Amino acid sequence: MRVTVYAGSSPGNRPVFAQEAARFAAELAQAGAEIVYGGGSVGLMGTIADAALAHGGKVIGIIPESLAQAEVAHPSLTELHVVETMHERKELMARLGDCFVAVPGGVGTLEELFEVWAALILGHHSKPVMLLNTDNYWSRLLSLVVRTGHYGFMSEEEVTSLLPVTDAADLLATMASWSPPPPRWPARPVTNALTG
Asked: Fewest C-beta atoms under 10 Å: which of 47, 105, 107, 145?
C-alpha cells in the first residue's frame, strides 16, 4: 500500500507537530506501507521522509524542478521524481497513492488536500482522504465542513468523507472499512443530439 502524505515545508512552531509526524511515518513504515510525498528535506516533509527511511520504509518523492533547490530535494529517498510543474507533481502524487493524508501544514498542504477531496466528491477517484489531526490542528476545519452540510452545500456522506485519524493504526483501520461517498453527479450515458 502507498500513502500519499501532504506536509508543510515548515516544521510549525510547536514540537508536537514534528514529533507526531515522525511517529506517524515510522508506524507506516513498520506496517509495510510506502510513503509518497513532495520530495523535500525541510519542514515536516523532511521529518516524515527521515522517520520512514530510518525505520526501513520506502519513500517516493515528487518535486518540481523549480522547488528542488528551495525545498532542498531529499538526497536519500527510495525514488525521487523531478517534474516540470506543480500540476505534474500533484497528479503523480495522486496517481501513485492508495489514500491521501494531510499532516499539519499551510496553504500548499490545504490546496493539495482540497484538490483530492473535491475529486473524491466528484467521483473522479474513490480513495480515502484523511487528516492527521495532531493536537486538534484540523478540528476547526472539520467544524467548518460540518457547517457546509448544515447550510445545504454538502451532503452528509460528503461531509463525513473527510476523515480525521490519530495515528497509522487508525489510518489502516479506516482503509479496511472505507466506502466512498456516492459521486455528486453520477455519470450519465452520452446521447447523440440526433438520436436522443
From this structure: 107
**162 beta partners:** 129
pLDDT grade for 177, boundaries at 50, 70 and 90: very high
Residues 102/130, Cβ–Cβ less than 8 Å: yes
Fold (CATH) for 2-173? Rossmann fold (3.40.50)
Contact yes or no for 55/22 (Cβ under 8 A): no
Distance separating alpha carbons of residues 67 and 71, to the nearest angstrom: 6
The pLDDT score that the predictor gives to residue 188 is: 55
| Contacts made by residues 76-82, CB under 8 angstroms, sequence distance 24+ | 76/49, 77/39, 77/49, 77/53, 78/34, 78/53, 80/39, 81/39, 82/39
Which ranges constitute the DSSP H helices of 81-132? 86-96, 107-121
Cell of 91: 497528479
DSSP structure string for 33-64: -EEEE--BSSHHHHHHHHHHHHTT--EEEEEE
Q: What grid cell was written down for 93?
A: 502524487
Residue 187 has pLDDT above 80, yes or no: no
The model carries a pTM of 0.91
